[in-house]
Amino acid sequence: MAGVRQFDEETVLAEALALFWRQGVAATSMPDLAAATGVQRGSLYNAYGDKEAIFLRAYDRYAAGLLDLCRASLEGDDAGRILARFFETIIANMTAGAPPRGCLTTKTAADGSLASATIQARLRDLLDGMTAAVAAALSRPAVRRQLTVDPAQAALVVVTFTRGIAVMERVYGDRRQLMRAAEGLIAGLVARPRKGRGA
Amino acid sequence: MAGVRQFDEETVLAEALALFWRQGVAATSMPDLAAATGVQRGSLYNAYGDKEAIFLRAYDRYAAGLLDLCRASLEGDDAGRILARFFETIIANMTAGAPPRGCLTTKTAADGSLASATIQARLRDLLDGMTAAVAAALSRPAVRRQLTVDPAQAALVVVTFTRGIAVMERVYGDRRQLMRAAEGLIAGLVARPRKGRGA
DNA sequence: AACATTCTTGACAATACCGTCAAACATGAC
DNA sequence: GTCATGTTTGACGGTATTGTCAAGAATGTT
Prior knowledge:
The structure is a homodimer. Chain A is mainly alpha-helical. Chain A has a single domain, classed as Tetracycline Repressor, domain 2. Helix content of chain A is about 70%, strand content about 0%. The first copy, chain A, contains ten helices and no strands. The radius of gyration of chain A is 19 Å and the shape is elongated. The first copy, chain A, starts with 8 loop residues before the first helix and ends in a 10-residue tail after the last helix. Chains A and B meet through helix 6, helix 7, helix 9 and helix 10 of A and helix 6, helix 7, helix 9 and helix 10 of B.
């Protein structure tokens, strides 16, 4: 096969992701992407077709990475600790960067990009995956016993709450507030939030 | 005073609000507003200056109305009922319209309009007001006793959760899921969610 | 080394939005 | 009825984005 792609797709998608994350999908134009990636607009059109296609590729990587982080944070048998670590992960993800980038999924969900059913489906996929991961963790017998709500519903509550945290981050930009909110939710969901201090 | 405004400001702001709500602030242009309100673009510039000014005026009305609805829903002494009615109000607000418009505050928060500190401040004002209203309701002694978390923190959790519901509405568009999520949260925050059925 | 294939480049036309402004207009004040 | 005042109108120049395309460039194949 001759006529070979001159740019490194990994790099381009990473730069594109960074831009989408920072600016939001709707606010990012093809010229923006061209400038950020160093690839000419015409080449991007040729390689991917349109902005949505680029976004979908970038988002898939993002989603996979985030899901891995979430799953890793959900190990253990102490419900309070599991959830605290999970929310820490989520909050770290959305407060990273300067200024903080916020949560890509949430920004995308609210910025009109959902006119595309394909994008909506991808966002749903990530949230479904996240819900499943949380539900699995909360369903472990040792964990389940500590909950005030059954695991499936608790998982829905937790994932919904992560979305709320993402919005609050945008509006208040106060990391501590997010932690306090998460802590409050955990207190409600776990039977004995504070038995001692350490283990 | 001669040279008098030819359009009805109430009507114009109502139409503008409807458009912002449906399309999102960032996705709404001055020509869009002109078309929707029937007022020429030049007149809008003359009367208000720019899109942001129009949005702020429309949003203030929206915020005031929504806050009133929220406060009204928070009366009573049964924590579970109060919260259920509050979430019903919130969910009704964001699932109204065909297709549902979602939550204006949340859409605005995530669509890049927060580049404007003024807009961010207004969103914060509404959420502050909502948090205060919920905190006040949850602080009533009879209510407070039923909670698993102290009122101030519970209010933060509740308001954060409303933002999460708004995002979930965008992604899933499933009213029942929102109700189930809210119900789950209430179960966690209220000590005895189900003692009987009625009072 | 020559070729075929695919990518890249720069430019094009089409469309849309913004902010402004001068001229025309309508209205309340006198 | 006349005037002063603020509004409305339509148009202008400037800028930006989109999607396409023909010509040039690069590379694997033979």
